[in-house]
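Protein folds are increasingly written down as discrete tokens. With that in mind, we are printing a sequence and the tokens encoding its fold.
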Amino acid sequence: MKIKLLLIFLIISWLPMVAQPGFGVVDSVKPYQIEKIFPNPIEDYFFVEVEATSRITIFFELIDILGQQVQKWDPMQLSPGSKRIKLLMNDHHSGIYLLKAQVGGDDVVFRIRKV
């Protein structure tokens, strides 16, 4: 009887893990990784360090705290390897902004501060 109860307990405690998204599924490796954004806070420009494992096209967009797009840079073709991209921000007022990076259907957002 104790063994049955123990077995039932183990099965019940294991079920929530199985129901979680991604359990038992190996996520595909992203073709890029944004290593860092610096300096932050920003004066006139900043750098984005990107590590690409394959050829990618990356889009950058700057969004203000009201959710309005204030700048969109031209798409950039990156070959595999480590890249440092310089983005200018000298036409914008001081404040908090969001930098949105997009590759394929994958969006990543970073908070940056302009002084």
